[in-house]
Amino acid sequence: MTGGLDATHDPGLRSWVSSANDAGTDFPIQNLPFGVFRRVGRDEQARVGIAIGAEILDVTAALRARIYHGLAEAAAAACGAPSLNDLMALGHEHWSALRQQTSEFLRAGGGREAANAARGDEVLVAMTSADLLVPARVGDYTDFYASVHHATNVGSMFRPDNALLPNYKFVPIGYHGRASSIVASGTRIHRPNGQTKGAADAAPGYGPSKALDYESELGVFVGPGNSLGEPLPIASATEHMFGVCLVNDWSARDIQTWEYQPLGPFLSKSFATTVSPWVVTMEALAPFRVPAFARPAGDPPPLAYLSDDADRERGGLEITLEVWLRTQRLRDGGAPAVRLSRASFTGMYWTMAQLLTHHASNGCNLRPGDLLASGTVSGPSKDTRGCLLELTWRGSEPLSLPDGETRTFLEDGDEVIMRGYCEREGAARIGFGECTGEVVPAVGAG
Ligand code: CA
Predict the structure, then answer these.
(1) Has 149 been annotated as catalytic?
(2) Ranges assigned E (strand) in 21-99
(3) Which residue(s) pair with 440 in the sheet?
(4) Which residues of the chain have pLDDT under 50?
(5) Which of 40, 64, 391, 413 could crosslink 328 through cysteines, CB 3.0-4.6 Å?
(6) What are the distances in angstroms from CA 334 to CA 52, 185, 406, 435?
């Protein structure tokens, strides 16, 4: 199993990029997440960059400046593409070499600092002067349902006497999502139109959703895939994971309620899914690997193909996810966003490795750049619920905002801001940046 600690994780490291040393930055030198960017106003091809403080290291420019050699040079050569797929396909040894040499180049102290810092103008781009794109060409997108708290809450709303279905503790439940509508953070989200039928309605109608929601999730990008017909053993699942991003699985609850039986969500989800621009690598997350969720006494153990000692000991991820809301009125008044929830990924019933292994267990081939989302990350208490459906209990308990507004579901003009970060004694804090989207009126409305 890969994922040990090395010099790149040393919490004492500092960078000559001064903004990377700011307290609270999501992108210190210990993080080095990957994304795809293009400078604003330039007619140029998008390419891979690495976030460092408030800057982006242009990997292609760094390659030209000859800062890489060996496997890292080959990995950097894959970064000229307008997506991370080529880099994702190379595998752990290449990713690790690229991380190692990038860390050495950006490091403060040592004999090379002055010479490296002198190349800053050549290889750095200010994040404020770049457009950040969807980081990978996602061939297939799958959404799981790995929080037992979320599944129990949602189940008890829709089936009060039968909240958790009998397969939940055996099967990592998921469905095939839509890859074409995965959008970059910051993309405005049109309220979807769809077919709905209220409980009191004699017949369904078609129009803008009246119950638009977000879902706070994490997504893992697949690195090297598996051949069709060949399952992925759980012991090697981590080697097939490139890294993790924030995911907002926008959901129209009224469309979902009417359409979901018997084949699951369809148009209630496929109108848009927002991803954060920065992919935090599994290697950067190594200091935050923790034991997998401990199943309560009486729960069945996972079947053998989903069971692995190393995964039980280190398959959890200590990542905190927050959801913030900024309404049109808050924005107009210059007021800040309001935090709606904060949850820990450590409470997830299934590990990322179990999701990946289960996905390939029938021989389904995963490919570099495929995105596997976790499902809504909710914990046991109300302030840890990762969607409005749960926070407002299907609209029956409206949220009150500090300015007197209330919400059951999202209104036009609402901006949803998701944040994620890792904090742990003895490790440098790293973050995911933001995953944002503003709701705008339905096409054809008004
Ligand atoms: Ca979801």
Answers:
(1) no
(2) 34-39, 47-52, 55-58
(3) 190
(4) 1
(5) 413
(6) 29, 22, 18, 21
What angle is formed at CA 290 by the lines to CA 285 and CA 296, rounded to 5 degrees? 140
Residue 215 Cα, ligand 1 centroid: separation in angstroms? 6
Half-sphere exposure of 429 (CA within 13 A, CB side): 14
Q: So what's the pLDDT on residue 218?
A: 98
Tens-digit pLDDT profile for residues 237-268: 999 999 999 999 999 999 999 999 899 999 99
- Neighbouring-strand partners of residue 48: 36
Q: What share of the chain is helix, strand, coil (3-state, %, to 5)?
A: 25, 25, 50
* Closest by CA position to 258, among listed 204, 323, 209, 305: 204
For the purposes of burial, counting CB atoms within 10 Å of the CB of 114, is it exposed (0-12), middle (13-18) or buried (19 or more)? exposed
Q: Residue 161 has what pLDDT?
A: 85
Report the DSSP pairing between strands 289-290 and 316-317: antiparallel
What pLDDT score was predicted for residue 368?
Answer: 98
Tell me how far apart the alpha carbons of residues 397 and 414 are, in angstroms, rounded to a whole number: 19
Residue 276, number of CB atoms within 10 A of its CB: 28
**Å from CA of 375 to ligand 1 middle:** 4
User: Cβ-count burial of 118 within 10 angstroms (0-12 exposed, 13-18 middle, 19+ buried)?
Assistant: exposed
| Residue the block writes with tokens 């457009």 | 131
In which residue are the tokens 């690495």 written? 50
70-78 contacts, C-beta under 8 A, 24 or more apart: 70/97, 71/97, 71/98, 72/97, 72/98, 72/100, 72/101, 72/102, 78/48
What is the maximum span of the chain, computed from C-alpha positions, in angstroms?
77
**In the prediction, which pLDDT does 1 show?**
40
> Rounded to the nearest whole angstrom, what is the distance from the C-alpha of residue 54 to the centroid of ligand 1?
31
Q: Of 373, 276, 367, which is closest to residue 33 (Cα–Cα)?
A: 276
Residues β-bridged to residue 34: 50, 279
Burial of 303 from C-beta contacts in 10 A (0-12 / 13-18 / 19+) = exposed
- Could you say which of 9, 94, 149, 150 is catalytic? 150
Q: Give me ligand 1 centre to Cα 425, in Å.
A: 31
Q: Give pLDDT, residue 110.
A: 85
